[in-house]
Fold these 4 entries.
Entry 1:
Amino acid sequence: MAFNVQTFKTRALTAIIFVVVMLAGLLWNQWSFFILFSIVHFGCWVEYQKLVATFHPDYARITPLHKYGIMLLGWCMMLYFTDSNRWMGSIRLSEIVFWLGIALIIILPVSIFFELKSTPVINFGYSIGGLLYLSLSLSLLLSMRLLHVDQTGVARGGEIIALLTIFSLWINDTMAYIVGSLIGKTPLSKISPKKTWEGTIGGVILCAIVVAIIGKIMEFSIYHSIAIAVIAGITGTIGDLFESKLKRMAGVKDSGSIMPGHGGFLDRFDSLLFASIFVWIYVQLAIVHH
């Protein structure tokens, strides 16, 4: 695959916009990050349900209670993971979320199995899959944002970990494209023919180097910075392939059109959806409980 300057400029511009938006939400305060990813959450759910309904038409006939209730349950999961002590005036949000979540957990399965559809079990499976794929992954990202770890004798906020995760995905995608365009010859997968093993491996290596430098500048552990970069680079690529598989099954090029010419929410956050889960696991095992 020859290196295309215009394509590279487009990808770089998209990545810059992505990072700027993430930084604004990440660094402003906890609420801005939650609001930002609440929008991402519902946007991803709308596109996910549309894709599933395309390759499994029966899913298009689920009831509004099922369709929007499962999204709301996922949002409750996100709010639960952000902070158990959030208040809105005199109302403790965690209590509202807890009871609303319990109600939805009871009501949704009952309503789904009473749907007059031929495959309620399969439809329920796709909805549960969406909770794991979309809601849980974003919940864990929000959870990392609130972590407080100490790697240098100074209290550090979890925003650094979230920031390094986002940077890793941006850098890995850019580096993988450059390396793959210049020396890529071996296709990585039939799902995405343009991806090569050379580009994938080169992207992860260069990403680790760059993120290690960023970690050093931010006075964060170089070891953990490299680990986060490698984990995010590898699992982010898998997330990209997974979303490409969904689109191939649905027979579409993009999951949506939030950014004209650049795709939808899932196209922009497919890597993050997978990477956040595995980075969270690493952080819990190697940093928080080490």
Note: The radius of gyration is 20 Å.
Entry 2:
Amino acid sequence: MDDACGRPHTDGMNTKQGYLLVVEDIPDILHLLNTTLTFKGYRVETACDGQEALELIKREPADLIVTDILMPRMDGFILVHSLRTHPETRDIPVIFLSATYIDPEDKAFALTIGVTHFIEKPVNFDEFLPTIAELLKRGKTAPSGNINEIEFYQGYLKRLKIKLDHKTKQIARDQRLMETPTAGDKLHLEASLQTAIRERQEIQHLLEETREKLITFTISEE
């Protein structure tokens, strides 16, 4: 039986390979990652967003975190920033998986805030699995990123603005294509359009929250 996030219930079996936390809001991708990593002998816990991930980490810090970036409630950027600002979690290695934030500037910002490794979706398991094994072998080490609150939210706001513009252009393009779709393309275009609309809404919400936080931090610094 699956839970509300589409995750299969597991028996909580403990293994010697390592404890991984996988954070992903798309059920099919979450199921694939969970199944693959469990089959490889890892103990795997899953979360649907960054907020749920932090709740799990408070109970038991993971050996390694694999997380999507664009997610509801709390995205991957905020999750990593939260981890890096607390001594008990700041050294946990984090792998980013993303199909949205794949520009060189996105990857550079991820490294700046302390992400350990970046992999684009769809996941290439020939790269993904050896990366996990190597990071677990290396153990918990101090992350390279080290920026303050204002620097983080300024950089984060910039990434959100650029992604919002990208999503708006994607939606306009899909809407134009929907005017005269071929039979084979119609379902694909509809799915793409709905996904882009949902992601734009998530980005807009994060953008508003980030602007408010920046105002708060700026006032407190005065």
Note: The two ends are 54 Å apart (CA to CA).
Entry 3:
Amino acid sequence: MSVPRTFVVRARCALAPDGRWAEGGGVLVCGGRIERFLDTSAAVRRTGAPIEDCGDALLLPGFVAAHTHLDLAGFHRRVPAGRAFPEWIRTLLAVRASIDPDTLAAATRASAERLLAQGTTCVGDIDASGRLASVADGLRLRVRRYREVLDAGDAQRCAESLRGLDAAPRRDPLWSEGISPHAPYTVSSSLWAAVGTRARRRRLPVAIHWAETTEERAWLERGDGPFRGLLAHAPLRSGLDAIDAAGMLGPRTALIHGNDATPAERERVARSGAVLVHCPGTHAFFGRAPFDAAGWRAAGVPLALGTDSLASNDDLDMAREMALFRAQHPEFSPLEVLELATRAGARALGHTGRVGTLAAGARADLVVHDAEGRDAEERVDALTHGRTSVIAVWVEGKRVQARPGTDSPTSRIGKPRVRSQNGGSPPAP
């Protein structure tokens, strides 16, 4: 039996689990987990372990993108926003039929690698096609795979969705399962019941697109609006009622978007313990009215950030999502925004304490950022404004050699200085 490798990663500023900045601190990693957070340079030295010294930089947990659609990676700039959301959906479906499957698979893999290169180590991905799983061999990205189900009232599609949901899970230590009933307007009452039963029995995390547009509410509650030409049967009840009736409104649920929620619905979500995931890039793509982040926070609903897909975003960079969020919501401090992209994302995916933190016992998913500033506060301000580059990434304690791609601005994946207590150079993890 091999002995788990033990080593330290340190940097000028390390983010402690309680939100403090540790000057010269780091983490002790053993067997892919964080064994201990190290507050000082002296604590680093006392471990006696080989040290990966990343110099004048920020050591953080990897970003957590709480909502992605990586299988839409090949749709970048092919689907205009349109005048109404149903128009965008129609165009998306037409474009999907026109793109070669191999092209889509290659784009999916490239986008996953780009996420890693930009410092995202964990995603909540909506799996509508199985494409990411088909190209994931050797990929170091941590994935909460939400198997998507929808039937739009079609009994045959309902049966097909359930068969896909019951398929064997992928055998990969970096993968975990979840369920995603697509949205209240595409899931029939019978499919809601079946999926709700499976989610409760298997205690699976849930992700649901909800209250994304005013057109959605018009269709669900009154059978009116642009969705009339796309869907056949309006349920004549609110989306939140449909989710709740299926037993899927609770602390294991991530609600995606929530742009059209009422104050009463915010309070109802808060009581349920669900998390609300906002995607600033997609919000900007569609030119939507300002997102009421302050209202959600005042209601007591945890917020997290996601990238959504390249069909409705220009990049999958979580630093860009933070910058877009900060531009619209200056009432959030830089550290609070960083929390939305790390610890809060972990909570949304059911990974609380496992990722998004440098706490003892968490997975060693680490990122070192090169950000300018006189102190940690200035550096995290630069980071959350998107003015940074990535020096190094580890997932499960192993160094990631990520390729950022060439179709948009890239992050720098360099190699930190390495030294050990006894002067030798240990092998890279």
Note: The longest strand covers residues 120-127.
Entry 4:
Amino acid sequence: GFDSNLSTDSSALVVNEAFVRAMGLENPIGEKVKLWGQESTPMPIIGVVKDFNFQSLHNEVNPVLFNINKSSNWFWTIKLAPEAVEKGVAHAKAAWESIEPNYPFGHMFLDSNLQTFYRQEVQLEKAIQSFAIICIIISCLGIYGMTSYTIEQRMKEIGIRKVLGAGVEQLVWLINQKFMLLFLITMVLTIPVVYYAISKWLDGFAYHINIGYSSFMFSGITVIGIIVITVSIQAIRAALMNPVKILRSE
């Protein structure tokens, strides 16, 4: 960083790695940069800091340079203890008004600024969560209705299989097979579409994760669990019925 004991540091620069790459500097320390155009006085680079994100992750880290300029005293950055935020703001306001009474005091919080970078993503997340819950509820009702219809159509088959010695587990699996097949067909059709859509969304970020198979595996296991539970509730009830009553009614 800058050394306040060195008067030369007031006319020097510290830059980030992105600045070094953009300028094509192999040995940046000691290189001079004209900060305010060709007529300005060249300022030497005395240090290079690692790249850090100071904008949204939608953007790549841009070149940055730092210098000491007492006349550019527009913002102060203050670290406050979490339990004394209000007291710290009041103290900062009093200190500011004692120094610059002609300029009104204003303040902002870093975490609030960071949240504004991703307001759209937060809204999208809430919308997807709400939509997903609605879809799951509607899907469960649909599966429940389809299960009732399937069992009603196969009651005679269930009764005959039970008379011939089929166990409850076999009968429950018999009903579940149809829905497992529909699930597999749906997964094959939807995974490429979902993968493409999420990939396009992630491309809007300069820095992002890669989509792994584990996400689809977790989703698939969750959906299978919901299907099995929804279908098995009625399948078990049908499998436990007296086959004599089933065949007599048929």
Note: The radius of gyration is 33 Å.
